[in-house]
Amino acid sequence: MRSEVSSPESVPSEGVPCDGGPAPVASTAVPSDIDALRRLHPATLLFRVIGVARSMALPTAPVVIVILTGPAVAVPYSLAVIGLTIAPLVIGNVARFLAFRFRLGADELVLHSGVLSRQQRVIPMARVQSIDVRQSALQRLFGMAEVHIETAGGEPADSVFAVIRGLGAEASLSVLPLRDAEAIAEALNRGRRRAMERATAGGDGARNDAAAAAEVAAATVECTGHAAGSGADDAPRPVARVSPPELALAGGTANEIGLVAALILAGTQFLDGLPLPVAGPGERLARFVADRLQLMEPDAAVTDAVAQQALADVALEVGTMLVVAAVILLVVVLVIAGWVVSIASTVVRYHDFRLERTAGELRKRYGLLSRRSVTIPLRRIQVLRVEESLLRRPIERAALRVSTAGAAPGQAGGTQLLAPIARRADVPRLVAAVHDDVDYDALRFHPVHPRARRRIFLRYALVIGALAGAAVWAYGGAGALVLALLPLAFGLADRQYRNRGYALAPGYVAARAGFFNHVTWLIPDGRIQALHLTESPFQRRYGLATLVIDTAGGWGGTARVVDLSRKDALRLMETLERRMDELRRAGAREGRATRPESVRNELTPRR
Amino acid sequence: MTDKPEALETPGTLDAPADDDGWLRLAPAAVWTWRLAGLARACVVAAGGGFAIWLWSRPSGEPATDALAALAAVKGAAWSAALAAALLLGLGAALAFAVARARYRAWGYRLRDDALVLRHGVLWRTTSVVPLARIQHVDTRRGPLDRWLGLARVVVYTAGVTGGALELPGLARADAAALRDRLAALTGTDDAV
Does this complex have an ipTM over 0.90? Predict the structure, then answer.
């Protein structure tokens, strides 16, 4: 049940296949096809047609029903309708397939697309942020895979926000044979590393270009995804591996359960109209009983009426209780179902989660039905977050996320999981895999100002006071019992206060906050973009301030330390400024004189 | 330890309207951007309020006994509406002017060797420090109002998300251009991300 690390001996060596197929000798794709235009594999058409069928299934369903059940004379017309709607889509897909070509150059990936208006997109290797090789279940059946290339600005699709915002990969090659896909991914990786080295080295550009070309031409790429003979530092070092029981635990304690439960409870709002549906059966019961009673002495009309009323009341109560019981049972069943679904989906989605570290990047692989392989260049990581949610704290588990940079200034980057779940004791090791020189457990967090506790408590007290007022108004004096929540509120405020803080480590700053979710941000000094000190009118009254540490990471990449004393906030700000300045001076001394061309190009993306 | 540590107090290196404690101020004409915005809002509120008063004080549905009485009733409503609108406008204008003045006084900036520091906000006071090494690029922008007042805004872009684009409104044109050029010259030396 441990999130274990496989021992070094079991590191996949050269020649071991990606997913258990026969060991390949060499890839036929990249080395010989450098600078040649290639098309996607013809199987693409099959997948596109399936996609068309899937998307058209719902709109054409009525027509299909007509064909199956309608008069015979309508059949040719219905077929014509279906043909006319589907044919253009199929033709379009075929045309687009034929028109799409790509070329993997030494320094860039070039995509040619467009049937009527031709487009050419050049993606410099230096701009590539992560390369994702994916296989859906169907693709795996055919031995195909997709390559998704993200330059900063796209989010990996395991972020809910990517789905909502409709962001995706900068470019995708779908579908290619698995071997070709892995070879291309590896070539892009190497190209990207070369570009980064060239950028930091500066003057050695010419030499590197020649060396790079030679390397690419001579290399044979194997299915494990790294070139033979490209150096020992390329061997991936395993960092973490999450077992199915741990994943089940992750699914069982995911915050999304709360969302599901809330949705279900919101859906059961018919509880508000409880008297109405219950009045039905209750009334019927009462009337039935009254009927029976009326068959007795006809002159006992008065007692009948009284008896009728009494019986009606009883029937109403019984009916109400039955309905309430049924509703509660339903809600419980739905919540349990949601919980089970959450567990199952987590286990399937992150099946066999492996995290590896190579020289300059992290690689994570996961997935049962669709197997994903995502690389995260360490250089792009802006913020590392350790999240201990309410449900996971008692079982000593945490999740880790990283925020990566965006491409153009101000453009949001992405936040993705580094590990869906990990033992609290393993967190320092995982953090060290990203930042070698951080000792997570040695971080000493300075608390925020004690007056913060008062502020938080006041907020809760106001809410409780309002609730108490409403309760008194509705139920009379007994409503004042709501005030008994005040000590509880004070305890909660205290807990929240204790959980806030900041810590300074050599080269890093850490911040901690959150109530249900305890979040710890770890930010290298060099990744701080700007510092903001804000004081709301209420904070000014107490001499407090909030420090916001802005980074280039996406949503969740900004750290806030709320309610520091103003002095502490200013002092922290000053310390961080000094550190950033020292970094800058050190960088200038080492001769990193000019801003790398690749970064400059990022400001005006070429399309 | 003093309330404002020394590091934030180093005088700026740019020529601009002088001021107290070392913060450079915006151009004096900048206060008019807020005044005009406030006045516009006051006009809208006054118009709305006047209309509401007019509706409220109109005569009820009973038909007037004669045309003169009817006219008198309507005239009364119109007058009270106009009076209300004028009052609201006056109050709004006074408020707008006071707020604009407070905001102008709250705005300050300084350019240190290693960072640009901005200070603004009346209720929510914010101090932002942007290291020069983190500036991706600098824009100057002039809206129609800015052009009329002879002002410009300087927008400083970082790769940050929360404060990705920090704006210095209401600088004199020459000052804005000078600041932009100085920042551009100073920020050519580092990898920002």
Answer: no
